[in-house]
Design a protein that fits this description.
six-stranded mixed beta sheet; 15 helices; 20 strands; about 20% strand
């Protein structure tokens, strides 16, 4: 049952400040992030102790456990969890034999027939976590074999948007109470209807937070992704305070829409899920539609038509694509959506890309990227069950993440430079980096869980969010 947040402060501001003052390497100036947060072992250990055991984290996509008996292992630092689809729904258990502690599973599989079998002494459990066999049970004291004691220890699990989330803290606010408004913004785009088209993974020689922050702002696009900048019609950092400034002022409406269509094609080839190839084809099919003379008005007319066609053609093909225009009216589109602490969904039209980042050591992390799309039922299509694991500098990665991966190890090395004590942030374009780092500090200070959940509502936000007051 979802709990209702009590947003009345259980501690005073001075109490919060006292607790926060004890956090090492705390963000004191909202526009400056101490560099040692990204490589200091003691800070990493504090995150291991105070952050990861108390936050909702994406354990798997539900399509990974589509059939009864399907299971996957989710690992975070030194903890391991089994997520399994049972006859009564998806459940999670701590991945440890109740005899001598061996992990029962590694990777993914199906336990419907044999259940979970310990490879050490052969003890068994069914998919509901109940012990079904103890080899030579007569050699054990009876009190050691209490049925309740032998059951696998459940781990808290809740689902949203086609994902299974786990939390090691049974007293934490519910998943929806923690996600906040981002669940509604993304929910109207039917993320649960998306399917994995492909899935890559790599180990980056980068702190997990640096890997996250590369996708919290678009300020890097001009230099890191010049192939996109060259096809961009707008300068988001222009002098026009009322909105983006047109770059290509010599183009007429038709030229602007042609440029935008080429931008979509390049974004699709570089990211796939963010703009699906089928959506590019629809955009290209609208090349001859009538357009207003004013370029800005032309964009509005074209985008309205494009989203209508994506929706209508998808529905005609039996795909659960939402009404994208209605979705944008209800919740204006955001290109990147952050789900604290380690997940992104990147919607553009119907499809999405997704990123999940997990810490390994203070200076390494596991980075996974998905292309998600509304796909027709096709018995011949092999379901995606595991990531393709590549070296971080592999040329086989799509173009855009490959460019990001080139930057991140260099940034990790640069943070060790003598005299580089903190990163300097734009309070407008890079504010999300500040917001979520300060939220991490709240967890490290062990502030009130309801207050942390409220801060998550403000932090689970879109691309290039400004620095905001998160409540502490």
């Amino acid at each position: 049952m979802a709990m209702t947040l009590d947003l009345n402060r259980s501690t005073t501001i001075s109490d919060d400040e006292t607790l926060l003052a004890e956090v090492p390497l705390r963000v004191v100036d909202q526009e400056k992030i101490p560099s040692r947060r990204y490589y200091d072992q003691a800070f990493f250990d504090l995150e291991r102790e105070k952050l990861w055991p108390h936050v909702w984290q994406v354990a798997c996509r539900l399509e990974e456990v589509a059939e009864v008996g399907d299971y996957v292992e989710y690992k975070i630092l030194d903890r391991s969890v089994i997520v399994v689809r049972t006859k009564t729904g998806v459940k999670a258990f701590h991945n440890a034999c109740r005899h001598r502690g061996l992990t029962l599973v590694e990777g993914a599989g199906n336990c419907k027939t044999k259940g979970f079998v310990c490879p050490f002494h052969g003890w068994r459990w069914n998919m509901e976590g109940e012990n079904t066999f103890v080899f030579g049970k007569q050699i054990f004291s009876e009190e050691l074999l209490d049925k309740a004691e032998l059951s696998l220890v459940p781990c808290r699990l809740e689902t949203w948007g086609g994902h299974a989330f786990i939390n090691f803290d049974d007293d934490a606010p519910s998943l929806l109470d923690s996600l906040g408004p981002v669940a509604e913004r993304l929910g109207i785009r039917n993320p649960e209807g998306l399917r994995m088209e492909w899935w890559y993974a790599t180990e980056l020689p980068t702190n997990w937070k640096l890997a996250m922050e590369a996708f919290m702002e678009g300020y890097h696009t001009m230099k890191t992704h010049p192939q996109l900048q060259d096809l961009s019609a707008f300068n988001p950092y222009g002098p026009d305070a009322d909105g983006p400034t047109l770059i290509q002022k010599d183009l007429d409406s038709r030229g602007h829409i042609d440029l935008f269509t080429r931008f979509l094609a390049r974004l699709s080839s570089g990211m796939a899920g963010m703009v699906h190839s089928s959506e590019v084809k629809i955009a290209e099919s609208l090349a001859d539609m009538e357009l207003p003379e004013d370029p800005m008005a032309a964009y509005g007319v074209f985008l309205d038509r494009l989203k209508t066609e994506i929706h209508q053609q998808g529905v005609a093909n039996g795909l659960p694509i939402p009404d994208l225009n209605a979705a944008d009216i209800a919740n204006p589109h955001r290109t990147v959506e952050f789900l604290f602490p380690h997940y992104f969904l990147l919607p553009f039209y119907g499809s999405m890309s997704a990123y999940r980042i997990r810490p390994l050591t203070p200076e390494t992390c596991l980075f996974e990227i998905w292309s998600l799309a509304f796909l027709p039922d096709d018995p011949a299509r092999e379901p995606v069950k595991a990531p393709i694991v590549l070296p971080y500098d592999s040329p086989d990665f799509p173009e855009i993440p490959r460019q990001d991966y080139e930057n991140l190890p260099r940034q990790q090395r640069g943070l060790h430079a003598v005299g580089f004590d903190y990163m300097r942030l734009s309070k407008e374009a890079e504010g999300l980096i500040s917001n979520y780092n300060r939220l991490i500090d709240g967890y490290l200070a062990e502030l009130d869980p309801a207050k942390l959940a409220k801060a998550q509502h403000l932090t689970n936000d879109g691309f290039e969010h400004p620095i905001v007051d998160i409540g502490f």
